[in-house]
Write a structure and sequence with these properties.
The protein is 17% helix and 28% strand. The chain has 259 residues and is α/β, with parallel strands linked by helices. It has 2 domains: 138 residues, 3 Solenoid (UDP N-Acetylglucosamine Acyltransferase, domain 1); 52 residues, Udp N-acetylglucosamine O-acyltransferase, Domain 2 (Up-down Bundle).
């Protein structure tokens, strides 16, 4: 373990022997940090927070701080972070609230660029990228391999589907379905995230199917319930179709973004 002598660490903190902590770091409360994690100077970590293995926390990040919720009254909520995540300068991640899940959850292999914010009770799964200044309000769900562009803001309780791409400076007020590209001051869909799908190894056949699904479901050519039934009948063998249908027919609190 390499801990700089200027770091301030509570006795309640549990550190693996392979953790590196630089100068002027402050860690307080019930915090557990796994092996291979590196914390750069002036970062602040508060608990209850669990941080897994091989995470990199850059200078001036604030991790596990209390939620920015006027109803919060010091309850024992928490933050759980998985493995291999990068939190760049001035990133802020808040703990959960008792009115929500009681926990904010970050998965594995995520990249949070400078000044990003993840509010209370969010779930960010795996392989997600938040570009500079991207902001998640409370209770947001971000599924695997999604990308949220710089200076974008996502409304409370919205959901971002797998492999979705949100362009920079976008205001997301409704759910973004899986595989789709969204942009605009009030987000609209502009078709499938073709470049992202290609980079993630989707075949031409899969991408062509997702294009057809986009036109049926989100271009307003059909009544929504009719569009869903059409997809169920005509694409019953497509796992991607099942993924989209499951997303848009269950769990939405904000509604679905259309083209």
């Amino acid at each position: 373990m390499a801990v700089h002598p200027t770091a301030i660490i509570d006795k309640s903190v549990e550190l693996d022997n392979d953790v590196e902590i630089e100068s002027y770091v402050v860690i307080k409360g019930k915090v557990v940090i796994g092996k291979g994690t590196k914390i750069s100077s002036h970062a602040v970590i508060e608990g209850p927070t669990e941080i897994g293995e091989n995470n990199t926390i850059f200078q001036f990040a604030s991790i596990g701080t209390p939620p920015q919720d006027l109803k919060y009254n010091g309850e024992d909520t928490k933050l759980i972070i998985g493995n291999n995540n990068v939190f760049r300068e001035f990133v802020t991640i808040n703990r959960g609230t008792m009115d929500g899940r009681g926990c904010t959850t970050i998965g594995n292999n995520n990249f949070f660029m400078a000044y990003c914010h993840v509010a209370h009770d969010c779930i960010v799964k795996d392989n997600v990228i938040l570009a500079n200044n991207a902001t998640l309000a409370g209770h947001i769900f971000v599924d695997n391999n999604a990308i949220i562009g710089g200076l974008s803001a996502v409304h409370q309780f919205a959901r971002i589907g797998k492999y979705a791409m949100i362009a920079g400076k976008t205001g997301v007020v409704k759910d973004i379905p899986p595989f789709m590209l969204a942009s605009g001051s009030r987000a609209k869909l502009f078709g499938p995230n073709i470049v992202g799908l290609e980079r993630n190894g989707f075949s031409k056949e899969r991408i062509d199917t997702i294009k057809k699904l986009y036109h049926i479901l989100f271009k307003r050519k059909y009544k929504f319930s009719d569009a869903v039934e059409k997809v169920k009948n005509e694409f019953s063998s497509s796992d991607d179709a099942k993924e989209i249908i499951e997303f848009i027919t269950s769990g939405t609190k904000r509604g679905i973004t259309l083209g």
